């Protein structure tokens, strides 16, 4: 007997037919011998309609506490309908909302973007949800919602229902979390933009987070903070009405603590190469020409950045000399590039955290201690989850220590 947490998004319960199909898939899973916890979002568009009504009737005068209570009504309706539908199919179910004594998700009092009290939530999941499962009852839990210590309703912010599912799965030590949504899985690209898009059989947590951070809306990265490495997870479409259907498996993460900041200093000494030319930003295919030359000679680029009149590349010190020679051939063989220089020895420090996307000023936090200690930054590159700093090799250890002391 395993434990399965099934989360149904708003579209998946957007009509009576879909609610019945969802409930039937849960009952079928239960009849296979598994314990099932159901997490349900508000019925499609309910939340948007509630926000519209609030804007039209109250506007900016609504308090955060009031708004959280209003927004919670969609989920509280969904769990009641879902639980009743499951029971109509012959299996006992119990809806659980924030006003229930068995409510598991405890948070602080930040009503619209609450922080979860993991320790207290773990206690309540074990005490109440696990007990219901052992009694043969299917708990149907409101997604997106929490409750503070005073009993007031809170909301978990963006991706809240997915957070609820992975959080409960984590606390139960579930075998699998199934996210039921309106897509067949994670696609190679947006099928609305390219009809050649295909479904991926699997994707890592890290890849899923990067996709989400850059616009994919299948699963919010906040939810993956609670994805345990040993708990299976997948995204499937509601249209099949079957929790066993193949979708896209989410693999990982590589470590237990998702929300840690990882700071590493590359062991290799790097060298910087600068290629210069006039108006490079508007020169077509110049990056392709450079990377093709690097590829042909089986050299690895550790970093690359572009400017108005220069392109900077970082190589391992023992490969930089060869890169210098081969890229010089490119310089003298055409009219676009005018010169190339082999510069100082470089240390590379990488700072990675999936919290960075929601952390304003993170680059300032990294660069400020370097500035205060007169360490010059040769180059800096960033994405939504990583910042990479290049400094003089002789400053590398000190820069690493300063960044680590500041962020950890």
Automatic annotation (TrEMBL):
Which organism does this sequence originate in?
A: Methanosphaera stadtmanae
- Tell me the lineage of the source organism: Archaea, Methanobacteriati, Methanobacteriota, Methanomada group, Methanobacteria
Q: Which Pfam families does this one have? A: AA_kinase (PF00696), ACT_7 (PF13840)
PANTHER family under this entry? ASPARTATE KINASE, ASPARTOKINASE
Q: Which residues form the ACT domain?
A: 351-408
Q: Which GO terms describe its cellular component?
A: cytosol
What keywords would UniProt list here? Amino-acid biosynthesis, ATP-binding, Kinase, Nucleotide-binding, Transferase
Top EC class per UniProt?
transferase
The pathway is: Amino-acid biosynthesis; L-threonine biosynthesis; L-threonine from L-aspartate: step 1/5; Amino-acid biosynthesis; L-methionine biosynthesis via de novo pathway; L-homoserine from L-aspartate: step 1/3; Amino-acid biosynthesis; L-lysine biosynthesis via DAP pathway; (S)-tetrahydrodipicolinate from L-aspartate: step 1/4
CDD domains reported for this sequence: AAK_AK (cd04234)
SUPFAM superfamilies, A to Z: ACT-like, Carbamate kinase-like
**EC number of this enzyme:** 2.7.2.4
| InterPro entries for this protein | AceGlu_kinase-like_sf, ACT-like_dom_sf, ACT_dom, Asp/Glu/Uridylate_kinase, Asp_kin_monofn, Asp_kinase, Aspartate_kinase_CS, CASTOR_ACT_dom
Q: What is this protein called?
A: Aspartokinase
Using the record, list the residue span of the signal peptide; answer none if the entry has no such feature. none
Gene Ontology MF: a single term: aspartate kinase activity
Catalytic reaction equation(s)? L-aspartate + ATP = 4-phospho-L-aspartate + ADP
Note the superkingdom of the native organism: Archaea
What's the family?
A: Belongs to the aspartokinase family.
The record's section on PROSITE patterns has: ACT, ASPARTOKINASE
Tell me which Gene Ontology terms the entry assigns under biological process: homoserine biosynthetic process; lysine biosynthetic process via diaminopimelate; threonine biosynthetic process
Under the heading Gene3D superfamilies, the entry gives: 3.30.70.260, Acetylglutamate kinase-like
């Amino acid at each position: 007997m395993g434990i399965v947490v099934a989360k149904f998004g708003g579209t998946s319960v957007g009509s009576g037919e879909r609610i019945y199909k969802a409930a039937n898939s849960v009952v079928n899973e239960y009849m296979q011998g598994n314990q099932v916890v159901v997490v349900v979002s508000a019925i499609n568009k309910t939340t948007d309609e509630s926000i519209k009504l609030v804007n039209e009737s109250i506007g900016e005068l609504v308090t955060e506490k009031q708004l959280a209570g209003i927004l919670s009504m969609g989920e509280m309706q969904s769990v009641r309908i879902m639980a009743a539908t499951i029971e109509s199919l012959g299996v006992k179910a119990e809806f659980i909302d924030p006003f229930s004594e068995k409510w598991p998700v405890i948070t602080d009092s930040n009503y619209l973007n609450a922080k979860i009290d993991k320790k207290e939530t773990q206690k309540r999941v074990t005490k109440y949800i696990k007990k219901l499962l052992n009694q043969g009852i299917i708990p149907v839990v409101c997604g997106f919602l929490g409750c503070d210590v005073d009993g007031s309703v809170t909301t978990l912010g963006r991706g809240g229902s997915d957070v609820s599912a992975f959080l409960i799965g984590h606390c139960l030590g579930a075998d699998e979390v199934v996210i039921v949504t309106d897509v067949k899985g994670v696609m190679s690209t947006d099928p609305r933009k390219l009809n050649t898009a295909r479904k991926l059989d699997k994707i890592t947590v890290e890849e899923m987070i990067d996709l989400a951070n850059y616009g994919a809306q299948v699963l919010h990265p906040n939810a993956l903070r609670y994805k345990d490495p040993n708990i299976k997870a997948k995204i499937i479409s509601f249209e099949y009405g079957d929790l066993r259907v193949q979708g896209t498996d989410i693999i990982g993460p590589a470590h237990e603590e998702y929300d840690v900041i990882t700071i590493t200093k590359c062991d290799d000494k790097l060298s910087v190469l600068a290629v210069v030319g006039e108006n490079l930003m508007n020169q077509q295919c110049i990056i392709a020409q450079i990377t093709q030359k690097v590829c042909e000679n089986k050299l690895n680029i550790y970093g690359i950045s572009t400017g108005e009149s220069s392109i900077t590349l970082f190589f391992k010190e023992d490969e930089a000399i060869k890169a210098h020679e081969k890229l010089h051939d490119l310089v003298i063989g055409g009219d676009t590039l005018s010169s190339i220089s082999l510069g100082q020895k470089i240390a590379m420090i990488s700072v990675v955290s999936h919290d960075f996307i929601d952390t304003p000023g993170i680059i300032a936090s990294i660069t400020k201690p370097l500035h205060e200690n007169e360490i010059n930054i040769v180059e800096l590159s960033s994405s939504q989850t990583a910042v990479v700093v290049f400094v003089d090799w002789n400053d590398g250890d000190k820069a690493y220590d300063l960044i680590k002391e500041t962020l950890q």
